[in-house]
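2 proteins. here.
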Amino acid sequence: MPIEIIVAILGIETSYGHNKGTHPTLETLVKRAFGNYRRRNFYRKELESFLLMSRENAIPPLAIKGSYAGAMGYPQFIASSYRHYAVDFNQDGKIDLFSDPIDAIGSIANYFDKHQWHDFGEIARPISLSSTHLKYAKRSTNKPKKNTQYWRNKGLSIDPDIPNKTKLAFIRLPQQKIDETWLTFWNFYVLTRYNHDNRYAMAAYQLSKKIKQQFNQNNH
C-alpha cells in the first residue's frame, strides 16, 4: 500500500489529526437513527456497532467525538469500519484511532487491503474522449468491468503501454468550463470504497502524487 496515499487521506480527513470532529458521536448516531433523517436503518446499525466498539475497546461512549455524520478518529472511520478494519498496528495491546496515528496508518492500509488494493497498480490517467465516446465517462463511481481490448475495439485511443487484458473505466469530473475526463484503473475504484465520491478519490490521488514528489525532492 503506497504510504503517500495513506498520508493524503489523513490530510484530507482530519488535517493530520488537527480536526477529528467535535460532535458527540453517541448523540449524533441516536439522532440519526431515530430522528427525521434519511438512512435511519443504516444509522441504527451504526449505533449498534458504535456501542459494541466502545465496549470492545473500553472507550466510554460519551467521551467519543467525531464528525457531524458519526465518523471518528484520525481516519474518520464509521463505527462498523472501526470494528472491521481498525488494527493495533504498533502492537501496544490496544486499538486507538483517536490518539494513535500509528494505529490509524495501519488501519487505513488494512482497509484498502481488505478492499483488494493491487500493489504496484496504477490509479488513473487523464484521457481525451471524443463527443462520441464521452457517454462512457460517468460522473458517479464507475467500476472497471471491460478490458482495454474492448475499449480499443470501441474506437477509444488508449495508451499503447496498457495491456489488452487490463480492466478500465472512465469518469468525468465537473469543472467550471469543461469536464475533465479520466481513465481509471482498479485502484481508483478501491479509493472510492473509502469515500464514494469520485472527486474525493481524485483529490486523494493527486495529493498523494504531490506528497511523493516533495518527499523525493527532499531526499535527493
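next one coming up
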Amino acid sequence: MFGAYASHGLSAWADPEQVSQVKLASQYQLLHALALLMTAILSSFYVSRLLTLSLYCFSIGTLCFSGSLYYWVFFASKLLVLITPLGGLLLIIAWLSIALAMLFSQRK
C-alpha cells in the first residue's frame, strides 16, 4: 500500500529522497514479510531455537527498519532515524539464524 502511494500520491508533496525512502521501506517490508512466512513454515518442519530467534528478528527488524523510514517521511521527524541501522542489523541476524538453523537443526 505504501509502495503504491509512493509511486502515485506521495510525489505531490514530498521530495524525491522521501519518495525513495518510502519505496525502500515498502520493498523491505514486503520482502521480510515473505521471509517471516517462510521461516514460520520452516519452523513446522525443524526443531530449532535459531528459527524462533529468526522470527523475532524479522518481526522487530522490519518494524524498526521500515517503521523508522515511514516515520521520518510522514511525520517529518528524524527522531527515530537511529533505529534504522538497528533494524538492519536485526534483519541480518535473522538471515544468518536461518542459515545456521538449516545447517544444524533436526527435522521433526
